[in-house]
Amino acid sequence: MAKDDYHVIVYNILAYLYQCLKHGEKPDESKLRCNGKFLDINETYWKYIFKNLYEYGFITGIIIDENDDGYDIYRLDLAQITPTGIEYLTENSTMQKAKKFFKDTAEVLIPLIE
After folding, report:
1. Residues 54, 92: Cα–Cα separation, whole Å
2. Farthest CA pair distance, the chain
3. Which one of 35, 48, 79, 106 is most buried, by most CB atoms within 10 A?
4. Cβ pair 17, 79 in contact under 8 A
5. Top-ranked range on mean pLDDT: pick from 11-15, 30-34, 59-63
6. pTM to 2 decimals?
7. What Cα–Cα distance (Å) separates residue 45 from each residue in 9, 42, 62, 103, 107?
8. Are residues 77 and 29 in contact, defined by beta-carbon separation less than 8 angstroms?
9. In this structure, are residues 20 and 29 in contact, taking their beta carbons and an 8 Å threshold?
């Protein structure tokens, strides 16, 4: 796995949102943007990931605005992991491989709550 693999990015986003939930904190939107503090992926890939996380019911709170150019995503500061997202994060074998990637490389894309 590489740090820009879909499952690695999804694991990191969901783990961050789970930590925010457990600590009662709103997510830092700058940590979740494609060109923000921690993610370095192209906007199309970033939109794809967040739209699918939302449509699969793993996260709520974001706004997906359909428009003539496709769609835009807003309100990452309101993103929350759902119980389904928590289950996927903790039970899915691919998520466990992504978690192992972080342990093996000692690299975290989005730092958990400071």
Report:
1. 17
2. 43
3. 79
4. yes
5. 59-63
6. 0.85
7. 10, 6, 17, 24, 21
8. yes
9. no
- As a whole number of Å, the end-to-end CA separation of the chain is 26
Whether residue 109 contacts residue 9, with contact meaning beta carbons closer than 8 Å, is answered with: yes
Q: Please report which confidence band the pLDDT of residue 106 belongs to, taking 50, 70 and 90 as the band edges.
A: low
Question: Which one, of 26, 8, 5, 9, lies nearest residue 17 by Cα?
Answer: 26
Q: What is the mean pLDDT of residues 24-31?
A: 93
Q: What are the structural domains, with CATH classification, of the chain?
A: 6-104 (1.10.10.10)
